[in-house]
Design brief:
With 121 residues, the protein is an alpha/beta fold. The protein is built from 3 helices and 5 strands; from the N terminus they run αβββαβαβ.
């Protein structure tokens, strides 16, 4: 069953609680780093706000027996997102949106082996 999240819900979390979500994840990071995982997955999606400006929501998730979110942010730069992604190990899987030299260098510098779908660029 597909459900559409109302814009008011997205706006509520963006305006009221994005800082809270970031702080909770930052506080949990030392604990999350100790959990054994197989690989890391990076993704982003864009959605419009009430003013029809595009916001980009980024997520960094570890995959093991369960999905473990380790970093979430509402920013406009993939490079900034990669710079704030916590250090890791093993493979980092991402789509072509992350196929940029600065992003890949950031991920490698943080200990990942980047597997990113190449773009035509």
């Amino acid at each position: 069953m597909k459900r559409r999240i109302p814009k008011s819900t997205l706006n509520y979390w963006e305006i009221k609680h994005s800082d809270l979500v970031k702080e909770v994840l930052r506080a949990l990071n030392p604990l999350l780093e100790q959990i054994d995982y197989l690989y890391t997955f990076l993704d982003s999606t864009k959605f419009p706000n009430w003013h029809k400006d595009l916001n980009e929501f980024f997520v960094c998730v570890r995959f093991g027996e369960t999905l473990i979110p380790v970093y979430v942010d509402l920013i406009s730069s993939k490079v900034e997102f990669a710079a704030r992604t916590p250090e890791g190990r093993g493979f980092a899987l991402a789509d072509g949106a992350f196929d940029a030299k600065k992003v890949l260098n950031e991920l490698v510098g943080k200990g990942y082996v980047s597997i990113v779908k190449p773009t035509k660029r």
